[in-house]
Design a protein that fits this description.
Layout lengths: L2 H44 L2 H7 L4
Amino acid sequence: MNWMDQADLKHAADGLSIGVLVGTFANLLPSIAAGMTIIWTAIRIWETETCKRLTGRKD
């Protein structure tokens, strides 16, 4: 195997690695987005006037 074949093999492995990385993030990002949405919604509910009144909090 000469150096040119090794370079081609290295580039192919790098491309495969990037593909796996993107696939991993693609599966992970929806879970992160869902978690952030739940947190954001909880904060919004906590800051409503009704919730402030029920918990005795003032501005």
